# Entry
Amino acid sequence: MIDTHCHIYDPAYDADRDAVMERTRQAGVRILLMPGVDSGNYAAMMNTAAKYPHCYPMIGLHPTSVDKNWKQEVDFVAEKLSALPAKTFVAVGEIGMDSHYGNDFLEEQKAAFAAQLALAEHYNLPVVIHSREAFVPTFEVLDNYSRSLRGVFHAFSGTLDDYHQIRQYGDFKIGVGGVVTFKNAHLAEVVRAVPLHDILLETDAPYLTPVPFRGKRNESTYLNYVVQKIAELKNIFAAEVQKITTENAIAMFADGSHQF
Ligand SMILES: [Zn+2]
# Structure
């Protein structure tokens, strides 16, 4: 399996990262994709990638890291993309819109999101989109784009209509993680209806820990609880969920350039 969204470079793992990696491997998770957040944790991410070759970095400015200084941060992303070899990053992410903490920087978030979509298009990379309580402005930005984009709406929280909408913007899939194990009839219904070919597995570790570990620190090891729940919802074998979602992740992020 591939955990397509995992903050394994987070300080939450500094004390026992080796042990987490070993458990993850034993649980059948072979590759971890690490989303970028901002320049502040870039070094930690790249150090983790250097030490653990099965952990692949992305580069991007997270919407909750957007403030008055967003231009400087987007320049940082642009500079890394242009300075480092072409296969360094598997995606531009995580980028997008978040109004959970208010709308103070809504316009700045839109500008940063648009600028990074342009970078992804320029470098022909998939995008990892974070959209929390913000589908309307997210779609407003995407409306200005051609359909050449591809990527994932990570920790997808939208409706079936939102899913149909994101398919209009290019080859977009939904990222499904621990939230699907919560008592949440709405997401269960969406996952049941969305074809398995449009689903990617993710943990968003250390956040969004699935039941029965909800509330504790998350890790890729627990991806199997997500798989189990998807299998149950779709009334198929867990092995099929693992196989198809892994193929989906390879097609999206390896794309002939990375050797997963
Ligand atoms: Zn994340």
Notes: Residues 5, 7, 35, 94, 204 surround zinc ion (CB under 6 Å).
